[in-house]
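Hey L., structure's done. Input below.
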Amino acid sequence: MAQFNITLTEEHLHGLFSSNGRDQAVAKLMEEIFNQVLLAQSKEQIGADPYERTDERTAYNEPIG
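Output:
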């Protein structure tokens, strides 16, 4: 499994805890962390960033129609 680096700025954290109640702030913080982990896992599995076209990419969406 890959190592994940999650970036949360001090301003982001301060905004979470000052504008929301404590429970909501923790929920939003966990949501942010989980979203970054899922994005990192998808990048690792697919071999590219979202919408990035590379030779190493292993998945793509077929056009509908």
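DSSP finds two helices and no strands in the chain. The mean pLDDT is 77.

-- N.
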